[in-house]
């Protein structure tokens, strides 16, 4: 870390001393001249004294970047101390306005207040963006003006609530400054954007904040100076109070009503206007910090905030939803009381407590579902398809294709479906999971040690926060694999498997391990895998070189995963302890849409899209699970039901939600964000008016009870 010389700290401290001396001199003079001393004489210079002391203290600790020169310190000291000194002129200005008669003084005050609020709002936005955004000057005028209007409206509400003084609007200045500086450090430390869901996890953020070094940059110093000017402008807002108590009381009531009205109108507009549609933009859900930089923090943050609410099902009643879930759960219990296989599995699980390992393999899928690839002699991942002793296997209906991994893990871990969250949403980015039931917490309550593994930065998809909120005891990230062997775009699957095997061998206690691999992540550019690994599959009808490169690179990745899976399963067979393995792909690769379009032109839109959301799964055990013949029974599942089905197969205790999910499958066998498959084998859109509509509505009600009620 290269820091500015500690001697530079003397510059703001000298300015601070000068400001304190000036305030004291003005106070003494006011006392001697009989004008009296008022609180504002000391209180308004206080934030400027704090800003000077802050920069001086930070510099003395070596926490100001070397790019900040002595001239920058001097300019900052002059601006901030000058703003503090300017506030001492407030009283004279107010007296001059009060000397005006009647309507003129009111109009002048109103005009002054609007101008100063607008100026402070513009300066606050400039401080927000300038503190972190290198391309702030390139933000489109429309978006910059929108941000200023938003801050102005917030200040206006605070202005009225604060009885038409500039005191409360300073909260908006400080909030903008703090958000901008916070965004700088979040981008620096996590390469991420501050999202609404992050504000729900401030406790977690505070817990880890001590691990970082907070060095102020020149941009932040400039932002502090802009905030000082904004606060100075607000200090000159003052209504001039009436001595008549009745008039004063009426003014107080009127101002509070005006503030409430501004707030209500603003909230109503926010709830009724789709910002992305109104401003004609879309934020990047994978890297929202890019959209923040291009369009500005405020419009993007508010657009993400609009995505938070989950639509309540029509006619929803929490008591009715609870009764519905209880009814489904009772049907499950009644059926299992007569099922000797389940009873045997329960007794075995209680006695054995097998380790449970879940591999959500990045972009792993069996593209032989595309008949055009079968015709080109592609039969899918060899070992994966040959594994004959699984407890169950089949098609897994994902809610994403080509990306959005976190939504598949959300569905698997929580048992909730994206069908009832809403399209285009990413729960890991939007919600707080401390109260949400999930497999990590469920296994923890059964006495298991729980560990999540993802060999990438922990901040990806907010996993570091979400996994902690879910109750995982441990989270291994890329930092825990310093010597990992890489293939394609990430550490190999085998790197993860070796770590899991090590954990299983070293700790005989029950463990639940959830591993999100990285090896197969897109894109699939030519040259990103060894040439000798390419399968050279050239399906008829596809001539685009880019699509063919994507296809063969992707299939090489799947082959590599298949080899590592064979190694892992063989090691588990001989590990000497009972282990359950759940393996599934999170989604088809990016580029699957090109294959689908080439192989199946002219299909109706729903049928065509449904195929792209098919991936694959199996549940396997290295021991004979009681009550199961382990002959690889086939069944299609939604990702939300896979966890419950696994628990059912191995005899583990199920939650009421899991029991209800499994019971509902007798009617709706699988569901995802696109639609569902009914017991008649027909796939339907979510809003289809089918025989199974009532079950879909029950599922929506139960999920709102189990998820939306807990995060909204």
TrEMBL record:
Key words, A-Z: Cell membrane, Membrane, Transmembrane, Transmembrane helix
Membrane topology qualifier: Multi-pass membrane protein
UniProt KW Transmembrane keyword: yes
One Pfam entry name: Sulfatase
Pathways per UniProt: Cell wall biogenesis; lipoteichoic acid biosynthesis
Transmembrane feature ranges: 6-28, 40-64, 70-89, 110-128, 140-161, 168-189, 220-241, 248-270
Annotated ranges, domain Sulfatase N-terminal: 354-627
Main location: membrane
Subcellular location: Cell membrane
Entries under PANTHER family matching the protein: LIPOTEICHOIC ACID SYNTHASE (PTHR47371), PHOSPHOGLYCEROL TRANSFERASE I (PTHR47371:SF3)
Name of this chain's protein: LTA synthase family protein
Lineage: Bacteria, Bacillati, Actinomycetota, Coriobacteriia, Coriobacteriales
């Amino acid at each position: 870390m290269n820091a500015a010389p500690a001697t530079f700290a003397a510059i703001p401290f000298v300015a601070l001393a000068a400001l304190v001396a000036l305030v004291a001199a003005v106070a003494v003079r006011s006392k001697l001249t009989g004008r009296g001393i008022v609180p504002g004489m000391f209180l308004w210079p206080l934030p400027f004294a704090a800003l000077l002391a802050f920069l001086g203290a930070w510099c003395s600790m070596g926490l100001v970047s070397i790019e900040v020169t002595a001239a920058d310190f001097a300019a900052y000291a002059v601006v901030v101390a000058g703003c503090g000194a300017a506030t001492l002129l407030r009283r004279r200005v107010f007296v001059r306005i009060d000397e005006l008669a009647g309507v003129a003084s009111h109009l002048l005050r109103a005009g002054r207040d609007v101008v100063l609020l607008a100026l402070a709002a513009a300066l606050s936005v400039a401080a927000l963006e300038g503190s972190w955004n290198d391309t702030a000057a390139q933000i489109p005028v429309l978006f910059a003006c929108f941000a200023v209007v938003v801050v102005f409206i917030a200040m206006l509400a605070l202005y009225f609530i604060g009885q038409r003084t500039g005191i409360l609007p300073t909260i908006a200045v400080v909030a903008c400054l703090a958000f901008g500086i916070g965004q700088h450090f979040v981008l620096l430390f996590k390469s991420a954007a501050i999202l609404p869901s992050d504000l729900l996890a401030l406790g977690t953020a505070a817990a880890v904040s001590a691990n970082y070094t907070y060095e102020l940059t020149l941009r932040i110093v400039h932002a502090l100076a802009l905030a000082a000017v904004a606060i100075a402008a607000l200090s000159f807002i003052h209504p001039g109070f009436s001595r008549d108590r009745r008039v004063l009381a009426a003014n107080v009531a009127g101002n509070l009503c005006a503030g409430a009205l501004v707030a209500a109108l603003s909230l109503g507009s926010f709830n009724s206007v789709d910002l992305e549609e109104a401003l004609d933009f879309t934020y990047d859900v994978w890297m929202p910090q890019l959209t923040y930089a291009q369009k500005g923090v405020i419009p993007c943050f508010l657009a993400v905030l609009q995505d938070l609410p989950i639509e309540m099902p029509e006619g929803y009643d929490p008591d009715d939803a609870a009764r519905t879930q209880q009814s489904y759960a009772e049907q499950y219990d009644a059926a299992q009381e007569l099922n000797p296989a389940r009873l045997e599995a329960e007794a075995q699980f209680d006695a054995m407590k097998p380790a449970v390992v879940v591999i959500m393999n990045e972009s792993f899928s069996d593209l032989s579902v595309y008949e055009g690839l079968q015709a080109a002699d592609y039969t899918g991942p060899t070992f994966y398809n040959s594994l004959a002793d699984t407890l169950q296997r089949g098609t897994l209906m994902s809610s994403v294709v080509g990306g959005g991994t976190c939504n598949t893990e959300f569905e698997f871990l929580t048992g909730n479906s994206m069908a009832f969250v809403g399209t285009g949403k990413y729960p890991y980015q939007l919600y707080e999971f401390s109260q949400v039931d999930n497999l990590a917490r469920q296994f923890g309550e059964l006495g298991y040690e729980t560990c999540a593994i993802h060999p990438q930065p922990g901040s990806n998809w907010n996993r570091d926060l979400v996994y902690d909120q879910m109750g995982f005891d441990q989270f291994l990230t890329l930092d825990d694999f310093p010597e990992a062997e890489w293939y394609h775009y990430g550490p190999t699957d085998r790197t993860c498997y070796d770590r899991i095997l090590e954990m299983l061998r070293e700790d005989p206690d029950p463990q639940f391990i959830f591993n999100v691999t990285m090896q197969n992540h897109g894109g699939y550019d030519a040259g990103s895998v060894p040439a000798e690994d390419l399968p050279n599959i050239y399906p008829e009808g596809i001539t685009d070189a880019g699509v063919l490169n994507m296809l063969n690179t992707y299939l090489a990745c799947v082959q590599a995963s298949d080899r590592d899976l064979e190694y892992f399963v063989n090691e588990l067979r001989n590990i000497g302890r009972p282990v359950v393995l759940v393996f599934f792909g999170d989604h088809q690769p990016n580029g699957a849409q090109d294959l689908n379009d080439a192989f199946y032109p002219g299909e109706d839109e729903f049928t065509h899209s449904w195929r792209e959301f098919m991936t694959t799964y199996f549940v396997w055990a290295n021991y004979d699970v009681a009550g199961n013949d382990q002959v690889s029974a086939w069944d299609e599942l939604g990702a939300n039901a896979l966890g419950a089905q696994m628990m059912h197969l191995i005899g583990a205790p199920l939650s009421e939600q899991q029991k209800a999910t499994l019971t509902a499958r007798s009617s709706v066998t699988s569901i995802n964000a696109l639609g569902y498959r009914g017991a008649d084998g027909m796939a339907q859109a979510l809003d289809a008016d089918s025989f199974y509509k009532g079950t879909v509505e029950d599922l929506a009600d139960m999920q709102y009870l189990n998820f939306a009620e807990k995060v909204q």
